[in-house]
Amino acid sequence: MQGRAHIISKNKKRFFTTVVASIAIVTSVYAFVEPYLIKYEKFSFFDKDIPAAFDGKRIVFIADIHRSHFFSQNRLKKLISMVNANSPDIILLGGDYTTHGEPQYIESVFSELATLNAPLGVYAVLGNHDHTQYLYLTKVSIKKANIQLLDNKATWVYIKHERIKIGGVGDLWHDIQTLSPTTTDVNSHDFVILLSHNPDYARTLSTDLVDLVLSGHSHGGQITFFGLWAYDRIYSNYTDGKFRHGLINLGFTQVFVTKGIGTVFLPMRFFARPEIVVITLRKEI
Ligand SMILES: [Fe+2]
Questions:
Q1: What is the mean pLDDT of residues 108-114?
Q2: What is the pLDDT of residues 64-76, one digit of tens each?
Q3: How far apart are CA 159 and CA 162, in angstroms?
Q4: Residue 152 C-alpha to ligand 1 middle, in angstroms?
Q5: How many other C-beta atoms are found inside a 10 Å radius of the C-beta of residue 171?
Q6: Phi first, then psi: what are they for 2, rounded to 5°?
Q7: How far is the CA of 260 from the centre of ligand 1 (A)?
């Protein structure tokens, strides 16, 4: 009897080990596949400050492409066609175009981003990885791609006589952040969008003139515990995970943090699918 009980317990142990090993293998394989599963994150953004001429206009926002040997030119081409397929009116880019700033990847990423198509313009800020090396080449390549760099700058975007303001700040970890170009000539009735690669910058804002902050950097945690938990300290000085992903209402402004496109460290994502953000502006009445 004792021998039989021993065999049953051995079989149970083997079964349990097989199940655990199978789950580990399946989740690991899936984590290598998830970076390829780019989805659209679509939502309407309502605000009374949105001018009537901009009601229904579409903004496409992408960040953290991280062109590298893990993110090929072919994947980049597919990404661009997915962006252009939405017929965006404005395209915003949130930084981290490469991972290590290798010249060949800087040139290849911006030669492809040059084919982005938006009648009201393509605007960008830099991320922390863009400061790694060859910063000047990155800036020149952005200009050559006909993309307007908004690090510590801002611009009015017009439709006839109506306008919205789009501004940007330098990366929180590697640059200064000057908000005044975005806020100096606006009043509380203007609609203002601010690009900041790092969402933690929004915690430092002390104005209600910015209506929407768009950020990346977090990669949505990149490798999470089934989307419920991530090691947030890797991208943030805070551990609350508040700016890991999604739309966050701070009262005086709203922040949208995208999970981004590419990966860092490992070419893996788990329950943090890459996304193209499509925002339809809606005038709140
Ligand atoms: Fe990034």
A1: 97
A2: 999 999 999 999 9
A3: 5
A4: 19
A5: 23
A6: -65, -40
A7: 7
> Is pTM beyond 0.90 here?
yes
Cα gap 198→201, rounded to integer Å:
6
Q: How close is the Cα of 220 to the center of ligand 1, in Å?
A: 10
| 1 has a pLDDT exceeding 70 | no
Ligand 1 center to residue 219 CA distance, Å?
Answer: 6
The candidate with the shortest Cα–Cα distance to 198, out of 264, 154, 255, is 255
Task: Work out whether the CA dihedral 260, 264, 268, 272 comes out positive or negative.
Answer: negative
Strands, E assignment, the chain: 39-47, 58-62, 90-93, 122-124, 148-149, 154-159, 162-168, 192-195, 212-215, 246-249, 254-257, 275-283
**Residue type at 200?**
D
**Between helices 135-144 and 103-113, what is the axis angle to 10°?**
20
What b/e string do you get for 243-258 counting C-beta neighbours within 10 Å, with b at 16 or more? Answer: bbbeebeeeebbbbbb
pLDDT band at residue 213 using 50, 70 and 90 as cut-offs: very high
Q: How confident is the model at residue 2 (pLDDT cuts 50, 70, 90)?
A: low
Look at residue 126 and tell me whether its pLDDT is greater than 70: yes
pLDDT of residue 9: 81
Domains defined along the chain, listed by start: 37-283 (3.60.21.10)
Residue 193 pLDDT more than 70? yes
Q: How far is the CA of 96 from the centre of ligand 1 (A)?
A: 5
CA distance 186 to 7: 77
d(CA 273, CA 122): 24
